[in-house]
């Protein structure tokens, strides 16, 4: 089982966060923890929303990376 993130701009276009693109994770919790630690850096690179994928299947999303006011 492989968990990955798909990155998009706020308007749904593909986003490339470069070296922050992450990796494959063996557990959902690991993928979510990674995102929790790095989301601000992703947002600074132009990522506006993310989708969590399990073996290429969309599990949930879009999840906005916009900071709450």
TrEMBL record:
It comes from Kribbella qitaiheensis. Residues 1-21 are annotated as: Disordered. This is Mtc1 family protein.
